[in-house]
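Throughout this chapter, every protein is written as a compact record of paired, labelled lines. The reader may check this reading against the record printed directly beneath this paragraph:
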Amino acid sequence: MDSKNTAPDISYYRLSLTDFLKESQPELLIDNAFIAERADTAAETYSQAVRNGSNQIEAGEQANAVLFQDLHFSTHNTLTNILWNEFSDLIPEEDAKSWAILLFPECEHVFAEYTLSDDFAYEPEYESLYTELTGVIANYFDEYGIQ
């Protein structure tokens, strides 16, 4: 936070986004341009909102909306949940997040078949995605003898 006007600066938004991505979109952590652009846009959104008369809370909400836009549906969390729900006999719960990172390249083509949005988990197509991903993971485990 900037001590003069208590407005978050770009580093605040960069750190917020990076922390979020570590947990739910780790495949995006290597995209420094994306992170920098989002942080810069969020900081500018905050400043513009304050200039337009919004209070700090409202400006922060607007900045966060920009910062996290289209990131609420997590491919990583989806894979982790499938591992927890469908493969708990093979993959210990504490290892599921690491396995999700490993499995993402194997599953990326399935995700590409769907129009993912922030609310995708609540769409009817989510069940089809879940089923397809479960099949891909099962085939991967069979192929590599993970039993």
